[in-house]
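Write out this protein's structure.
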Amino acid sequence: MRRFGSLLSSPSVISCAALLLRLVYLFVFFHDQPVPAGNRYVIGYETGSIAASLASGHGYGSPLYAPSGPTAWITPVYPFLLAGVFKVFGAYTFSASVAIRSINAIFSSLTCYPLFFLGKRLFGNSVGITAAWLWAVLPAAVFFPIVWVWDTSLSALLLITCLSATYAMDDRDGVRTWSLFGAFWGFSILVNAAILSVLPGCFLFAMSRARQRGASYLKLASVAAAFLAITISPWVIRNFIVFHGQVALRSNFGLELWLGNNPEVPISASPWLHPNDAAKEKQEFLRLGEVAYMREKRSEAIHFIATHPADTLRFQYHRLMLTWTGFEDSLADVWPTAKPMLRAELALNYALPLLMLFGLLLAHRNFQLLSLPLLNVVVFFPAVYYICHTNARYRHPIDTVMVVLSAYSIVWLVREIRGRTVLWRPFKRRPEAISEV
């Protein structure tokens, strides 16, 4: 029995169980999918289009299934990974679709490792085990790697690893370690530029801890920053040359801002106006070119925000709800007419952020400054999506932090309940004691 318990406590076993669950879901996913016309599987939308362009030798470009020249729509790591899959299995084939979704499943399963070690480092072994198992069975963590061919699962793995590395720097003062720290952050940003939003807070935390222990914190931070810059510089230099200094990491902010802030937005966004779905917008994109199109959309969005402040605030409220609950409307609006399955989804969607919030409060009370990197991720990562538009996929990378904090809440609550039960037991009169009186 003890050996079985130790197996269940192993991050390797948990990761393997997570992978098995995701592969089973992969089988179910394809079993229920009809064969598309011409056996051409839709894989990755803009990511897939760029990957197909790379695989066919036409370079990093054409994000909308039509030749349009170079692009900086998406940072390069995941499109290059998908391009490699296309090279081996063929572009938009069934085999390529299975391969990339299996790779996503591996990324999602490997996330159990940093979750385990971060939870253990901060809050103890029980929290590490609970966090890893929560991730293994979390519906969103099973769903996204299989359904969405995007950087979503890889971003989740890298973000929680960056956060774990930030805490691990607490007792490391070697120049080599700090250079790897900076390079890893740089690589993560090249996977998902949104990770840049939590970089300053994590760097400042690592620097302050180094300063407290008397290390040469300015030197170490400078080394980390230099290697971060070296890592992302080829992509940034390429963009400055290709787009004449008008793009650094990504080009598509104007479009994303406009999709969430224009006269046709009903609640929080207007995804049907995306150039992938709207022929008129696609033609406009092809006519103007990427940079000019994005600049035009940014101007339209800013004008709408300036002239419709009440609508803008309303959209942001619904985006806030969508980010943290998975629904654009409040619980009071959805619950009364919801069916049992939807109510179960609502309960889970509300439970995770509530447990996260409680865990964050506990962490701040018990560990104070050590909770700041966790708070940094929760506050800053989704901020840009409140302004533009969002869905559950965009939040998924910080689901990892939510799982750690939720695991801390669960373990704390279980211990409190057990403690109260133990305290209550001495006051209960055992049958044999009653007979002796």
